[in-house]
């Protein structure tokens, strides 16, 4: 049975689109996007929901946290949501939602976590003259970009500028997010009390792919 997936967005929605494309292109996809949740009524990415007849629920952040949490939980219940994929959702998910979907809520973040949680990762990586950057896909916990990491793509920085670096990483985000969400939905990648499992194997470190880059420094 496919997992009913809710995708949470706030902005552009390229990862939302890639999740949609994957499900359209592969009939054995183990998730089905049945809902898009946004905290921003003007999120450009909402167009992908319209184009694909996916229901949208706009639930802007509220000063009363409990009320906001209840609204989200009721909404997820109504659509019988089994799994959440955060895709550029800029608000911190309420605690009750994190608890209810523990092990079934994932996020994608443009850095090699635990390094560079939060915003402006590409700029900070370049300013700090890091040699490597990348992306992480992780289970969501109560912190900001702190949950157990499942998968990473490691990209060499090699003196490329912030714009290009962010574009390169976004391409890998869009490629790999659907694959990992699919494996989590299948139960092949899972969160257990002692860590992240790939089927029956406890991962000692995140699954990672290293992208080879031209090394400009040696030219
Ligand atoms: C991505 O870089 C994602 O890793 C981060 O927010 C950005 C969202 O991009 N969490 P998009 O809206 O999916 O295009």
Summarize the structure.
This protein has 219 residues and is an alpha/beta fold. Helices cover 32% and strands 26% of the residues.
Task: Please explain how this structure is put together.
The chain is an alpha/beta fold. It is built from six helices and eleven strands. It has helices at 14-25, 46-51, 65-78, 95-100, 121-127, 162-186, and strands spanning 3-9, 31-38, 56-58, 83-86, 105-109, 132-139, 149-156, 189-192, 195-198, 201-202, 207-210. The strands form two sheets. It has an eight-stranded mixed beta sheet. Strands 8-9-10 form a three-stranded antiparallel beta sheet. Strand 8 (189-192) and strand 9 form a beta hairpin. Helix 1 (14-25) packs across helix 6. The radius of gyration is 17 Å and the shape is globular. The N and C termini lie far apart (53 Å). The model has no long low-confidence stretch (mean pLDDT 96). It binds 5-O-phosphono-beta-D-ribofuranosylamine. 5-O-phosphono-beta-D-ribofuranosylamine binds at residues 9, 11-16, 45, 87-88, 108-110, 170, 173.
């Amino acid at each position: 049975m496919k997992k009913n997936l809710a995708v949470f967005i706030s902005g552009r929605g390229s990862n939302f689109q890639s999740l949609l494309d994957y499900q359209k292109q592969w009939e054995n996809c183990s998730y089905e996007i049945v809902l898009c949740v946004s905290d921003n009524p003007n999120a450009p990415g909402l167009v992908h929901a319209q184009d694909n007849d996916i229901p949208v629920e706009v639930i802007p952040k509220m000063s009363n946290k409990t009320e906001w949490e209840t609204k989200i939980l009721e909404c997820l219940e109504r659509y019988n949501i089994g799994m959440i994929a955060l895709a550029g959702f800029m608000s911190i998910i309420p605690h009750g939602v994190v608890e209810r979907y523990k092990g079934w809520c994932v996020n994608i973040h443009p850095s090699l976590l635990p390094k560079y949680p939060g915003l402006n990762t590409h700029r900070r990586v370049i300013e700090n003259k890091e040699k490597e950057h990348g992306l992480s896909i992780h289970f969501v916990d109560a912190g900001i970009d702190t949950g157990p990491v499942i998968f990473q793509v490691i990209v060499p920085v090699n003196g490329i500028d912030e714009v290009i670096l962010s574009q390169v990483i976004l391409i890998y985000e869009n490629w790999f997010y659907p694959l990992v969400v699919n494996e989590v939905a299948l139960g092949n990648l899972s969160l257990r009390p002692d860590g992240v499992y790939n089927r029956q194997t406890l991962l000692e470190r995140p699954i990672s792919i290293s992208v080879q880059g031209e090394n400009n420094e040696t030219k």
